[in-house]
Specification:
The complex is a heterodimer. By secondary structure, chain A is an alpha+beta fold. In chain A, the strands form 13 sheets. Chain A has a seven-stranded mixed β-sheet with strand order 29-32-33-39-38-37-36, with helices on both faces. Chain A has a five-stranded antiparallel β-sheet with strand order 6-5-4-7-12, with no helix packed on it. In chain A, strands 16, 17, 23, 24 and 25 form a five-stranded antiparallel β-sheet that branches. Classes of the chains: A alpha+beta, B alpha+beta. At the A-B interface, helix 7, helix 10, helix 12, helix 13 and strand 29 of A face helix 5, strand 1, strand 2, strand 4 and helix 8 of B.
Chain lengths: 802, 355
């Protein structure tokens, strides 16, 4: 909402300066976006002095002037004026300036072989007078110190630009803004002039609002103005329209616009001679069309509120008029419309047609239904003043009566909500100034809301009115108490934060990528999940919700590889989706790691990362989070986007159904499709929702502290075993031989190849044996050693290697 | 008797000399070996008369101890000498680089969420979460934003079905609705999370982060709202003084509503939060609208309170001098390295939010 400060003062009598007014506007909830001089085309014309005049080399009548325009450099201007002379002070127009008289835009140009930078102007070119002989001569006394300054001063009014919240329909007119300021003590709202009009005759064009379901118009006021002479608007009106940032069109259009911005009362003027017989306000039929004033043809759907005549649609009620009945400069008779359209209907229609107009913007927020007559009177009066003509009686057809909003306001509600007190007297004054009708009863105020405030419906709205007018700076600051009655995080949230930092501490950089992704890539990772499409995606490559974090992360990994990074570790913790309904999402931590370990290090031999790096980072984090590594169970049932032979699923317990994590390499075919080239790429995922919540705190999870000081012994074993036999099971068998004695089992060699049958492998293990009760003697050790060998051999078919 | 004194004298003398390790070991075995001189003396013990035996044993033991400790000392001295000799050749260029170290990073948005959580935890808020996919009711209708309301224009919504029944939440406010529908008052929660609007340019990203706040109890008024946000902003920006103003605004789900601006100034093109004369809008808030409370079946005659919504990415940008919102989600390794945080930097109240 833009308007000049002078326009505001037409409605507001105030002794406050501009700054105070601006500050007040923001303080009462009418946020000032900007307050500045309107940029004017005339700003570019500056006072200049001719420092030197030389004869043009190729033209007798032209001269080349060196002109001081107040800048460091003197400019050269070719000039044809006979009065140009050294030391003359005149008006200079730079390249880019538009000459008011002929609207010509200047550019740097060569005039008979000499380049001219801008122009020295005559009075007639600047529309200062009719004097066109020679350039403007300014008095050197007055302008001597003004070289380089703008010639036109105060030419551009100060314009306020307000950002009006959707609830404040009333402040889309200057008067509404003035009313709020007055209520806030920044002056007095001026009375509107009563326009005395002599109405002549009835409004002869028949108007009918058809009675039908979903009728979007509830009142239609109109009057005829006959025998007018439409014309250009007078200067005051043009200036008003210009200050809005709009272009003046004709007196009739400018007046209707002016009333809209002044009183927030949209109007429409029809060329009465172009209306076929009568006006019918009705619902549109599917397929009807019309050409609107924006010169576009609109094809309508069912149930859009249209103004029509016997020939068809004239315009969309409250949104835009049509060209068929539009006013022109030669229009003689007009029908002026002032109506009330239902906000929802307006909004629905404009959304469907993707149409936005100033009228639509106002009607969808709610126009004062009681302003129909006032709007017609004001506009008709102005039009008559400018264009002459006879005004008919006003005709108002109503389909519905407007109900007054009555509110019972308990006075103490104000203090309950805001925490501070305002006297009853002051409350009443504020409400009266805002236009409420008040009737006090006991501790309540019975209020009738002003008809221009469709947003006020219940007591809380009254609280808001009073507190914003009083000022939010009146609200006391109650310091918060540092008391915590509930834990900040629940178990699941703690786990989230723990994993986030645990994984980061292992060298991974946390990424946050979009929850949506490219369907083409998502297909590679979605498994059997339902993929959810976004109906209105921002772009076609972000058109589905991600079924896996890999869908995004792997693309970003590739981008970083392309940037020349080789060793990259990335992770993200966030949602993945398996449906389009709330709750069909899971929280997953996904990590990717590419490249080498110890690259270019003089101490260590570099090597590519492998899946056991991924497994280490994953298992270590699980253990750090408090899960028992002795219970963790691994199998190889992994999603299809993993390398089938180089990936594993992790269970916190052997008998759990859902794996909590996966690790391994990405399927080589996928890398091929995405075209990722790297030395090595490993990954893992943790499904946080699959981790069952335990009620145990860490203090309860800790077992009793037990230790043994008796001597421990180590024994090494090597078994030849089936190639497919899982080492995990081998370790379990050994551990189970005697839980009291077998302390730990470590794998220190895995060998296949020479000296080993083709379907076998050799596993070398180091077993630590220690008793809690005594130092084991040779005999004890020999016994347990034999037991380990016999158990393994009998349970697995393995053979001890000698 | 004098035998053992003699042995002692003899060997004390021998040990005085400058000896190498072998010679000392030689002397040691001459004395204490299987047929060593002291060992032999011990063997004589049985043949000594009872009355002399005690004294003999005591003398012999003390001589043994004296010689033994002298030998041990001699050996240690020689060994230390040898180490010292060796050290002269044991020099390493310590300016050579260390082994590659491991260093990860926490995303600035995650860090700021933890900072916010830490601040609100101090004054009794707990963390709630809600789904990213919401239904139209929780995201709009329950929040007093009916269909065909102009306020919906402010939210360019991503829809997931043609009936516009399911969508990506446009703000974290539906968590308010879920929290109140599923629990009993009082409510004192914050809800950080991802939010989505179909808007994309320099300052808008189709995904961004918000934190919702909700405090509902008996007698919670705008003074508490002001105090809570005042406290939060001061703590978050970690400055002693900060100018702040509440100004009226409009949100369908709060009434009265406010926007909060903080003071800043520009120094060398950088925004400095605190006492400057310019205002920067950082959050929206207000008293929860009675219509919302009714929608979640709360008795408005007993319970009332406030809610607020803060853009997390914007807070991160302001606090840590990040210029481009889009970079947050582009996963540029260089950017993550530059703006990311060390995982050990967990924000907490006792050691400060940030270093």
């Amino acid at each position: 909402m833009r308007f000049t400060i002078d326009w505001l003062k037409q409605h507001l009598e105030t002794k406050y300066n501009d700054e105070k007014i601006i500050e007040k506007l923001t303080n009462i909830g009418l946020e000032v976006e900007s307050f500045q001089n309107q940029i004017s085309e005339k700003d570019e014309f500056v006072v200049a002095r001719i420092v030197n005049k030389n004869q043009h080399p190729n033209a007798d009548r032209l001269s080349v002037c060196d002109v001081d325009i107040g800048k460091e450099e003197i400019v050269k201007v070719v000039c044809g004026a006979p009065n140009a002379k050294k030391n003359l002070i005149t008006i200079y127009a730079p390249p880019g300036a538009v000459i008011p008289k002929n609207q010509m835009k200047l550019s740097v140009s060569k005039i008979r072989g000499v380049t001219s930078y801008g122009m020295l102007c005559s009075e007639s070119e600047l529309e200062l007078s009719d004097e066109s002989e020679g350039i403007t001569e300014l008095s050197s006394k007055k302008y001597n110190n003004q070289i380089g300054k703008k010639y036109f001063k105060n030419g551009s009014p100060k314009v306020i630009d307000l950002s009006i919240t959707p609830n404040r329909a009333d402040c889309l007119g200057v008067r509404g803004v003035a009313r709020d300021l007055a209520a806030a003590g920044t002056g007095k709202l001026k009375k509107l002039n009563d326009n005395k009009i002599r109405f002549k005759g009835p409004q002869k064009i028949k108007v009918k609002i058809s009675r039908e379901k979903n009728q979007g118009c509830s009142a239609f006021g109109s009057c005829l103005i006959k025998g007018i002479k439409n014309t250009e608007s007078p200067k005051w009106l043009k200036d008003k329209i210009l200050s809005l940032g709009q272009k003046p069109i004709s007196a009739i259009v400018d007046v209707t616009n002016y009333i809209m911005f002044d009183l927030n009362r949209p109007l429409h003027a029809y060329d009465a001679d172009k209306i076929n017989n009568s006006i019918i306000v009705r619902n549109s039929k599917k397929g009807e069309s019309f050409e609107a004033l924006d010169n576009k043809k609109y094809i309508l759907q069912e149930n859009m509120c249209v103004i029509s005549d016997n020939s068809g649609v004239l315009g969309l009620g409250g949104i835009i008029g049509g060209t068929r009945s539009g006013t022109e400069l030669d229009t003689k008779n007009i029908l002026l419309e002032s109506a009330y359209f239902n906000p929802k209907s307006i909004r629905k229609t404009s959304k469907l047609l993707n149409l936005d107009t100033d009228a639509k913007f106002r009607f969808e927020r709610g126009i004062d239904p009681n302003s129909i007559e006032e709007g017609l009177v004001k506009a008709a009066h102005l039009i008559q003043k400018i264009c002459g003509g006879e005004i008919s009686k006003i005709d108002i057809k109503k389909n519905d009566t407007f109900k007054k909003i009555q509110i019972k306001f308990p006075i103490n509600l104000f203090e309950n909500i805001t925490g501070f007190k305002v006297t009853e007297k002051e409350i009443i004054k504020i409400l009266i100034d805002l236009g409420f009708v008040i009737n006090k009863k006991n501790n309540d105020l019975n209020l009738i809301a002003p008809s221009w405030r469709p947003d006020i419906l219940q007591p809380i709205d009254i609280v808001e009115e009073i507190v914003r007018i009083k000022g939010y700076d009146q609200i006391k600051t109650e310091l918060p108490k540092k008391i915590r009655e509930k834990p900040t995080l629940n178990k699941q949230q703690k786990l989230f934060h723990f994993f986030q930092r645990s994984i980061a501490s292992k060298g991974y950089y946390e990424a946050i990528t979009w929850s949506f992704t490219d369907s083409k890539i998502n297909q590679l990772f979605k498994e059997d999940k339902n993929e959810t499409e976004i109906v209105n995606p921002i772009s076609s490559d972000l058109s589905v919700l991600r079924s896996s974090i890999f869908s995004n992360l792997i693309v970003y990994l590739k981008k970083n590889l392309d940037r020349g990074f080789k060793d990259i570790s990335l992770f993200e913790i966030g949602p993945i989706f398996n449906g389009y309904k709330p709750g069909q999402q899971k929280t997953v931590l996904t990590a990717l790691r590419a490249g080498k370990v110890s690259r270019h290090n003089w101490l260590e031999k570099e090597r590519i990362v492998d899946l056991f790096d991924a497994k280490r980072d994953l298992i270590q984090s699980l253990v750090e989070a408090g899960f028992d590594d002795k219970k963790i169970f691994i199998d190889n049932k992994t999603p299809t986007y993993y390398h089938p032979g180089k990936s594993g699923a992790v269970y916190l317990n052997k008998n759990e159904n859902n794996p909590v994590a996966f690790f391994g390499e990405i399927h080589p075919n996928i890398l091929k499709i995405i075209d990722i080239k790297t030395e090595a790429l490993i990954c893992f995922e943790i499904y946080l929702d699959h981790i069952k919540e335990t009620n145990k705190k860490i203090k309860d999870q800790k077992k009793k502290y037990q230790y043994s000081d008796y001597q421990k012994s180590e024994r090494d074993f090597a078994f030849i075993i089936d190639k497919n036999f899982k080492v995990q099971d081998l370790i379990n068998i050994i551990s189970e031989v005697d839980k009291n004695l077998v302390n730990s089992v470590k794998v220190f060699d895995v060998y296949e190849g020479q000296n080993i049958p083709e379907d076998k492998k050799s596993i070398a293990l180091n077993v630590t044996i220690q008793s809690k009760e005594k130092t084991l003697n040779d005999e004890d050790l020999e016994k347990i050693t034999q037991l380990i060998i016999s158990s393994v051999e009998s349970k697995t078919g393995a053979k001890i290697r000698s | 008797m004098s035998d053992i004194i003699k042995i002692k004298e003899e060997y004390l003398n021998k040990l005085k000399k400058n000896l190498d390790l072998n010679s000392v070991n030689q002397l040691k075995s001459e004395l204490f070996g299987k047929n060593g001189k002291i060992s032999n003396e011990f063997k004589k013990m049985g043949s000594i008369s009872a009355e002399n035996r005690k004294k003999f044993a005591s003398d012999l033991n003390s001589i043994k101890d004296e010689l033994q400790s002298l030998i041990e000392k001699k050996i240690k001295d020689i060994e230390i000498n040898e180490i010292n000799l060796k050290l002269q050749n044991e020099k390493v260029d310590v300016t050579l680089p260390e082994r590659n170290f491991i260093r990860g990073k926490i995303h600035p948005v995650s860090q700021v969420i933890d900072e916010i959580s830490s601040i609100f935890s101090e004054i009794g808020f707990s963390i709630q979460e809600g789904p990213d996919v919401e239904n139209e009711y929780n995201n709009f209708t329950a929040l007093n934003t009916p269909d065909n309301h102009p306020a919906r224009d402010m939210h360019d919504t991503f829809y997931l079905d043609n009936d516009k029944e399911f969508l990506l939440r446009t703000h974290t406010s539906p968590v308010q609705v879920r929290t109140m529908l599923n629990g009993k008052p009082p409510f004192k929660i914050i809800a950080p999370g991802r939010t989505y609007r179909s808007d994309s340019d320099q300052t808008h990203s189709p995904m961004f982060h918000q934190v919702e706040g909700l405090h509902i109890d008996r007698n919670i008024n705008m003074g508490h709202l002001k105090g809570c946000l005042n406290y939060f902003i001061k703590e978050f920006f970690e400055v002693d003084k900060i100018r702040m103003r509440f100004r009226p605004s409009h949100f369908p789900f709060t009434e009265p509503s406010a926007e909060v601006d903080i003071g800043y100034e520009l120094k060398d093109g950088k925004i400095v939060i605190g006492e400057g004369d310019k205002w920067l809008e950082i959050l929206g808030c207000g008293m929860v609208h009675p219509n919302v409370l009714k929608n979640v079946k709360l008795d408005t005659s007993k319970f009332q309170g406030y809610a607020f919504g803060i853009g997390i990415d914007r807070l991160a940008m302001l606090k840590y001098g990040i210029n481009d919102l889009r970079a947050f989600f582009e996963t540029d390794y260089r950017w993550l390295n530059h703006f990311g945080f060390d995982p050990l930097d967990v924000p907490s109240s006792y050691r400060g939010l940030s270093r």
